[in-house]
Design goal:
215 residues; alpha+beta; eight-stranded antiparallel beta sheet
Length: 215
């Protein structure tokens, strides 16, 4: 069985933590304008797009349950492998681009302990742009059985808020939810020296399921 073959569990989808500030006002506005449209049809001009926006946000902020894959290092994000780059220190960076249609909840690539979470201020160019390395981002370090693993959540042109779910010192299970990037963005994982990536540029990944290594 491939690492991608077990992913979603139908019927077990919830909303991501950290979306209330965006979702609740939209739901309230849609509900109010829908009620008002019963008295005056002109309110439907607002009710219809607000209801559609609510439905879209419910889809964008879905958080499906996942059955973890069997590889040692799992993808932290749903999306497409944008690049695979050797790093000067011997590690390999795997960059995964998340479109606005992908699940935005990110997961731990390995089990371990969170040793560092650093927020770095920056710009908001599109995440598929090479200059997105200078974007707003959160840099994670995990102490794992393979040593230190670095993961970077990068905000894009639309996604301007990264919400970590954990704090330094937290124990994390493989494929456990670690944070949210609102709307499209990018997540990078640095594979330790000597570990060859099992994915290729252009390949789709499923967070917590797709294996990034051959282990």
């Amino acid at each position: 069985m491939s690492h991608d073959s077990v992913s979603h569990q139908p019927g077990r989808v919830r909303l991501a933590r950290g979306v209330s500030p965006w979702l609740l006002p939209t739901v309230a506005a849609a509900a109010v304008t829908s009620l008002l449209s019963r008295r005056d049809r002109r309110w439907a001009l607002a009710a219809v797009p607000l209801t559609a926006l609510t439905g879209g946000m419910l889809w964008f902020f879905r958080d499906p349950e996942r059955t973890p894959g069997t590889a040692r290092i799992l993808s932290p994000a749903d999306g497409v492998v944008q690049s695979i780059d050797p790093w000067p220190d011997g590690r390999t960076r795997v960059a995964i681009f998340m479109s606005p249609l992908d699940v935005h909840v990110n997961r731990a690539p390995l089990a371990g302990t969170v040793t560092s979470i650093e927020h770095v201020a920056g710009g908001f160019v599109p995440a598929f742009n090479k200059d997105s390395d200078k974007n707003e981002r959160v840099v994670w370090h995990l102490d794992t059985e393979l040593g230190d693993i670095e993961m970077v959540q990068i905000a894009g042109a639309v996604a301007r808020r990264i919400i970590p779910y954990l704090t330094v010192g937290a124990k994390v299970a493989r494929a456990e939810r670690v944070g949210l990037i609102r709307l499209g963005s990018r997540v990078d994982v640095y594979l330790p020296e000597g570990i060859e990536p099992a994915v290729s540029v252009g390949q789709r990944t499923v967070a917590g399921v797709t294996g990034l290594d051959h282990g």
